[in-house]
Amino acid sequence: MPTDYVIRIAGESGEGIVLSGEIVTLALSRSGFNIFTFSTYPAEVRGGPSMFQIRTGANRLRSQGDSVDILVALNDDACDENLKDLNEDGLLICDGTPEKQLNSPFDKKVINCPIPITEIASKEVGVYRCKNMVVIGALSNLLNIDYSIIESVIKEKTSRKGSHVLEKNLLAFKLGFDYAEIHKTKPIPYNLGPIGKSEKLVISGNEALALGALMSGCRFYAAYPITPATDLMEWLALELPGVGGVVIQAEDEISALGMVLGASFAGQKAFTATSGPGLSLMVELIGIASMAEIPSVIVDVQRGGPGTGMPTKTEQSDLNLALYGTHGDASRIVLAPTNVEDCFFQIINAFNLSEKYQLPVIILSDQSLGHRKESIRRPVMADIKQSKRLRPGDDEIKDYRRYGLTPAGVSPMAIPGENAGYYVAQGLEHDEYGSPCYDPENHLRMTAKRFRKLQNISGDINMFEKYGKQDASTGIIGWGSTEGAVRDAFERLDAEGYGVEVFYPKVLNPLPDKAIRNFLKNKKTILVPEINYTGQFAMLLRGKYLKQVTPLNICGGIPFTAKEIYSKVRELCNR
Amino acid sequence: MTRYTPLDYIGRNKPVWCAGCGDYGVLTALFNVFSQKKIDAKNVAIISGIGCSGRLPDFIKAYGFHGAHGRALPIAIGVKVANPSLNVFVVGGDGDGLSIGAGHFPHAARKNIDMTYILMDNSLFGMTKGQFSPTSPCKFESGSSPYGTLEEPMDPIALSLIYGSTFVARGYSGPSKLNDLINLIRQAMEHKGFSFIHVLSPCITYNKVVTFQSLNAQVVDIDEKHEITDRNEALALALREEKLYVGLFYKITKPTFGERLITISEKCGKRGLDIERLYVNFT
Fold first, then answer.
1. A single GO molecular function, which one (chain A) (predicted)?
2. A430 and A446 in contact (C-beta within 8 Å)?
C-alpha cells in the first residue's frame, strides 16, 4: 500500500473547483493527514479548464505526486483531459449514471464510480452551482473522509454567503454522499478516515510569507494587484490593521516600492510583493534602495514570462532580473525559499538581513509555491528573532556621517523625528555625509562599502541545504521550489542505491561560494533542474565556477514531478 | 534646535544652481517659513525627484530623500504614513512631476495625504541643459525641439484641482512676490491635507521665453473676492488664458488619508498580536 494518495478534482473555471478542493484539504488536515496541494487554473475569471489536486498521507509530503489515485471530473471534457494521469487501478468519479460509457478508449482497470453530479445539483438540490458539494459528498463516502468534519468545514467556508446557500450546500453534500453509498458496486481500497488530531497549519506559500512578515514585525505593506501575488495583499489588508499596520494599494508597482522605501526611511519595516512584470517596473528603485542603503523587502511570486506571459502558471525565469536587474553595480540579497514552511522563515530572514545590512532583499517564490498549500509545523513567536537597524549614538550625531565607512560596510542610520541626524538619503553617489560626490576614488570606496555588506551574511542565516552522499559522483543543484520534487526523487534513488548528493542554496546572492565549490569539486555529473527555458542558474554556475553542468529545463508552466527528476538522474547514471 | 533664524536652516551643501535661478526663491521661502514657525528640523522630511529643483534637500538642514526621477510623491506617502508626526514636503520640477512622474500626482492628491507638494516650474528640463517640458509653451524652441514643440502645455493648477487636492495655489519666485510665496508655503504647511503650490521659477540659463521679465508682466494677484472653497470658480480662474494668476485658488477641508486610516483600524478592531487567532485561518 502506498503511504499517500493523490486526489484530483477537475472541471471548468467557475464550477467551484477551488472551493471544493479547499474544503477537502481542510477536512483531511483536521483528520490528521499531511497535505500538499497543486492547482491549475486559467487567468480568466470564467471558463477554461481548472483543477485542484490534493496529495495527502500520514508523512510529510514534498511534491505534488507523480500521478493521480482518485480523479473527480465535473464534466466530460475534464474527464477526457485528465484520464491519462489516473493510475491503472485508480478511482474515477465522473458525471453520469452507472450506465455511462466513457468517451475515450479506455482499458485501464479503474474503479469507475459515476455520480450524476449535474443532475443531483440541478434537479434534486435545484442549484446547478452546488455540483462541487455533490462531489465532496461522494468523496466523503467513497474515501471514508469523516462526514461531520467535512460538514463543519462547509459551514465555516460557506455560511457567510447566507443561510439559504449553506442549506443548499449541505443538502447537495448529503445527496452526493447518499448516492455514492447506494450505488458503489466494488469495495474501495482507500481509507482517509481520521488518524488523529493535526497540530499543523495547512497554509499556502503566499500566506506563509504574509504571516511571516506580520510576525517579524513588519507593519507597512504597499503593492499593486498582480497574479499570482495578489492574495498576499488581501490577507495582509485583512490582518495588518489589527496589529497597528497599514496596507496601501498603490497606483503601480513603482509607486508601491517607492512607498516601501519612504516608510523604511521613516523607520518602519516595510515590504511589497509582486510578480515578474511588477519586478521589471521596480528595478530602478531597487538601485536607489541599494545606493541610498534603505532596508526593503521585495517578494517576487514568479509566473510564466516574458511580457504578460502566463499569469497563473509557474516559472523560475526571473532569476536574472532578481540578481542583476537595475543599472549600475547594485548590491542586494536574493533569497529562494524551497517550500511553504521555508517561505515563512525566509521572509523573516529577509527582514533581518535588510534591517541589519540596509539594502534591498528580494525573495524569489513562484506561482506553484505561492498558491499550493502544505502542512507546516506551528511557528512559535518566541523563536522568531528580530534584527535591529544600527542607529547613531549621541556622539555620532554631532558630526553625523550617514554613509560612514566602516569595516563591515554598515553605517548607523538616523531616523527622521528621532534626533538631529539630518541627512539626505542619496540616490546620487555621495560621500560619507550623503553629499553628492563624483570623485573617482570616492565612487570606488563607496561601491566597495556597499558590496562589503554582503560578505558577512553567512554568519546570520543558513546559506544552503545539502544532503546525500558526499563522495557521490552525481549531484543535483537547483534553487527554489523545485527542491521538493528533487527530494522525493533523491529518496527513491537513494533507496535504489544510486549515489547522489543534492545542494540547494537558500541565498542566491551572495552565493555560498565555498560550499558550492566543495560540492562541485568531485562531481562528474551535475544536474541543474530549473523551470525556465534558458537555464539561468546553470549559466551562472558555469560562468562563476567554470564547471560543466547538465541543465534540465521545463517551461510548460507547471512544476517538476519527482518522476521527471528521478528518470533524468537514472538516465545520466546509466549512460 | 535652539535657534530658529532662517540662517539656522542652511544645509551642509552649497546650492549648485546658476546664480539668479528662480529656485533660490523657493529655498529662501522655505528657510523663512521654518523660521517663522520655529520648526525643529529633525521633524522635517523633504522628498525630491531628479532635476535642478530636486537638488533642494541637499541645501537645507532637514531630513531629505533624493530618490528616483518622478517618484518623490510615492516615497513621501510612505514617509508620512509611517510617521504622521513629520512635516513632509515634496519638491520637484515640471519634468519630474508632470512628465515622468505624472501618474503619481492624481493618486497623491486624491488620497489627501497631509503634506505639501511644491512644483517648481521653469518650463523646461534644466539639468539636461534645456529641452522642452510639459509646461513649455506650444512652438517652444529648445535643444530637443529645434523647430518648435508640437504639444500644448499642461496646466498644473487645473490638473491639481481636478485630481482632488484640497489646497491649490500658485506662487512666483520673483523678488516682487517672495513674501507672498512665503505666506503661501506657510499656509500650505498649516493646511491639513494635500497642499499643492505651483511655483513659477524661471530658468535664467536656458529659457529665453519664460523669464522673470515675461512673468513679471504676466502675473496678477487673485482678486480678494475670489471664493476659495468653490472648485468651479478656481478652475475657471486657472483656465483664463490672458492672465497668470498667483495666490490661493482653492482650499477646503476633507478627512486626510491618515484620518481615514484610523477608521480602518477601528473597523478592524485592535486585536493585538494574537497568533492563535491568526492560526485559526489555517487549521
1. oxidoreductase activity, acting on the aldehyde or oxo group of donors
2. yes
